[in-house]
Amino acid sequence: MTVLWGVSFDATAMSGVVVEFIKIAKSFAGQGYRVHLDLGYDIKADKGRFFQPYRHERTPDWITLDRVDGVEHIAGYDQDFVAATLESVRRNEVPDTDRITSELADAIVRTWEDRGVTLVMVENGTLPENVAYTKALYQAISTYGATHGLGRYVLWRDHDLMWQSEPDKYGSFPYPATPPMVNSPHIHYFALHEEARRRTLEWMPHLRALDVLPNTFTPPGRAGRPDFREHFGLPEDVKIIARLTRIIPQKRIDRDLHLLARLPGTWLFVAGDTEENPEETRRLRAVAAELRVPVVFGGVLEPCESTGDGFSVRDLLAHADLVSFLTSYDYESYGNPIGEAIAAGVPYIASRYALYDTVYAGFEAPVLDILADDLPTEEFARQVLDLMTNAERRAEVVAHNQRLGMHNRAAADELVSTLFPPPMGEDVRLSVVLPVYNEAANIDEVLQSLHGQDGIDPGMYEIVLVDNNSTDDTVARARRFAERSKVALHVVGEREQGVACARRTGMEFAARRSRNRKDPGERFYLVSADADCRVDRRWLAELFAAMEEDKAAIGVCDYYYNAEHFVGRPRLWEAIQRTLRCRAVTFSLFGGFPDGKGFAVEREAYEDVGGIEICYQLQNGRFVNHLSDDWDFGIKVRGSGYDITYAPRSRVEINPRRVNHAIDEVITGRAYGNDGIIVMRDIRPEAPPKTEDLTEAEALQAWEFSIKDFSPKNTILPVLLTPSLLDDDAVLAFFGEDLASRLGTRIAEIKEEMRVVDFVPIHSYKTPSYRLYFEFRDEIFARLRAAVGEDIGYPPPLPECFDDVPEDRFAEFVKYYCEDRESGEAHNYFGNGGVF
């Protein structure tokens, strides 16, 4: 059983911080986590609950209220100590907390060990009032993470940015007496919005793992109780303004009372603890009496998520006409009550506090400018009354805010699920990674082909769909498919555009989760699929069988086009088939290299070589990610000494749009760029595809670019990376002993010559393989003709620049031609990327 440990620095049973913890924790509970929550009574001194036992705290029944064992026995650790250290911090003096910090850290680790904690959520631990506890948490996280080999198992979130809203409490910027945020391999930090992220990095510019995770909007899970009004003495015919808040001066509930004085027939319901600050409660009652406005102090309600018998915030929202958030200017950075109102479909009003426009940009509500008017004006009251009584206007505002809120919630859910993925099924042996970008027209058919796999149990594999910023309903369609699928389907996002980035994100997501399987010693496979291709019904079973039998690091599929899509185009079809026939021969000899359309890699080998690397190139003055991540990755694996196997019965059908909608670029070998820049070309059916056949000249051009791209990669590169292949009987038979011997000698010479040159991966294999192609091209083609057929023909003409090169200097000028990456001529000659 996996266990989530939550710790709140708020020390309040049901604050906005705790409510937001519950929302995130609920998704983990749905994944099978047991959820424990430390409310922070033994952390924050000003709430007066230090070491108090839990008694009547209202949290959902799936949460176990817990705390660190034995903290009450740490000598010198109490409320006075916390207050004294905070006073030192105010004076920019670093307090001496080393002993207590160390003992606290030990106690935290012992508690986590006892509970079996696997995931930790820290709420509001940044620049806290309890410096010793924050330092102890950092120490405990490091110790526990290293002991158990955990990755980023901590979600650390700062809600209030207390160093912004109460700056005097923490000294002066950059707060030298407070514990700095740690660049830990175990912690992923979250800010609530971009402005908070910017200001955090202004303070801690070295911080790396910092993302934005806004408050979430969870729609009501049940209807409000009809007896709510009767229970609290609220007449049926009155309007209700709800205020969900702590009853303290900073919350400025007096503003709501003054607003009520301008709204006859309206009542205020305050859901908050009247005992937290009894003096403020008495003052508010006196103001209400003086203004003669009706107010109900309803006490602390159960949280929205509660399924208990008591009245909850959801019950209040079901009866409220409006939710108010008229708070102080410099106190709040994010108002949880606004989020609750949006989720419940209730309009809200707010004051324009410091970060309101940053946090709620785009949402609609009457906003009181409290820098201009401390109390509600007549005009503000008119706007509020119109929102409560104009049914059409109210419906428009609610619909607009809910649409925007649901979008924010989906983004937050996706971020959390990506960084803290759900546990993997214990029987899963393969994760199929499917990058998608606006594939609504194809996704149902693609997923159906992945789902309907023969020869393999649905519980043995899963699908990881990586959304690469789709703007259509690709993801919605995928989620609907998942609801009726026997195969688990996970959706994660990748913000950086590019199939390579998306493929890497999916692979990393699957690799992290695979370590928690039933038998982590079993070989586990990461599988790449393509959203515009179809896989055969035994694609996965045959690929899995080949990987299991050969124990190779990578398994490569067979690819084909459907002949029905090329009826009436015999020249084009013949050029395609010749390429695929050559591929079948060389892949059976050398294993080949992975193609994103379909390959598998064993997880340990994937991690050992550092996973998929994204290379960048300059195109028109901007950095772009290099397309051939699959080939580059295969080269890394092969170059690291791992084996590649070919699974010819694991077959993938290539979508003809790759040819039909870019035929002019395909036949010239420039479908994916030129001059050495290889980037993804979005080949979409924006116009009717070309269906006429190639001319004889075009067919020859297409074949020559195809075979020029194919030959260095598939006949020379494998032995360049693994010269021992030249000792294999089948490879010897293909090359012949004499050619194999000379090729091996020349490979050794070129490697020795180039060994001091620091090539980046995009070029480290191309330059030597291009050189070897030119030097051995006639003999290579002779071997291809013998193995594949006479129609393979002879090498395409050399570049014109070799016309004047003396024969005895040919190899010398080949070297400079292939190494001249400034001009990119060699890349253009060789097709600069796959053609068919």
Low-confidence stretches: none
Give the C-level CATH assignment of the largest domain. Alpha Beta
How would you name the CATH homologous superfamily of the largest domain? Spore Coat Polysaccharide Biosynthesis Protein SpsA, Chain A
- Arithmetic mean pLDDT: 86
User: How does CATH name the architecture of the largest domain?
Assistant: Alpha-Beta Complex
Could you give a short account of the major beta sheet? 8 strands, mixed
Strand content: 5-15%
Helix content: 40-55%
Name its key features.
836 residues, alpha/beta, Rossmann fold, Spore Coat Polysaccharide Biosynthesis Protein SpsA, Chain A, 4 domains, 30 helices
Question: How would you sum up this structure in a few lines?
Answer:
Keywords: Transferase. InterPro entries: Glyco_trans_1, Glyco_trans_2-like, Glycosyltransf_2, Nucleotide-diphossugar_trans. With 836 residues, the chain is α/β, with parallel strands linked by helices.
Task: Please give a structural write-up.
Helix 8 (253-260) packs parallel to helix 9 (278-291), helix 19 (570-590) packs parallel to helix 24 (696-721) and helix 26 packs antiparallel against helix 28 (766-788). With 836 residues, this protein is of the alpha/beta class. It has four domains: 3-212, Rossmann fold (3-Layer(aba) Sandwich), CATH 3.40.50; 228-407, Rossmann fold; 418-696, Spore Coat Polysaccharide Biosynthesis Protein SpsA, Chain A, CATH 3.90.550.10; 705-829, no CATH class. The longest helix has 29 residues, at 391-419. It has an eight-stranded mixed β-sheet, with helices on both faces. It has a seven-stranded parallel β-sheet with strand order 3-2-1-4-5-6-7. Strands 10-9-8-11-12-13 form a six-stranded parallel β-sheet, with helices on both faces. Strand 15, helix 16 (474-483) and strand 16 (488-493) form a beta-alpha-beta unit. Helices cover 42% and strands 14% of the residues. The chain is built from 30 helices and 23 strands.
